[in-house]
Amino acid sequence: MDPITFATVVNIGEARRQGAEIEGRQIINTQLQQSINYTYLSNKGIPAGSSDFVTLAYSPLNTANHTLTWTPNKSWQWDLITRYLDSRYSGNNKTGTKLGSQVTWDTRVGYNLTHTELYFGVQDIFNKRYEEQAGFPLPGRTYYGGLQWHFE
Q: Would the pTM count as exceeding 0.85?
């Protein structure tokens, strides 16, 4: 079967997503905590030209995230995030281009005022080039920032 491309995208007549997710959080002390989550997800469907359920394109079985949070006081918060995404294929039924597994690291710093948070972050700290869709590499390190108002 050909890999999925923009020219061949069609709806799947029947699809089933089933899996499990587990998450844990540990408060190490008043300033340091960590959380981790793991997801197993089976994403299967019956694409055009097939009579059986097959693994759908771009469907990783395993993903995991770990976040380490440091809050030195009530105003500041720093997060270090590690993300893991399992390998997957660009075509249905594990065909097409195999996209390898990837690990990326992100960070975010926030400063809290009354009902307001100013934040700055970096996605993909180590500028690792990877693809989430075959032939379309992501831009690498990305900076972002913003201001949030909290209505409490």
A: no
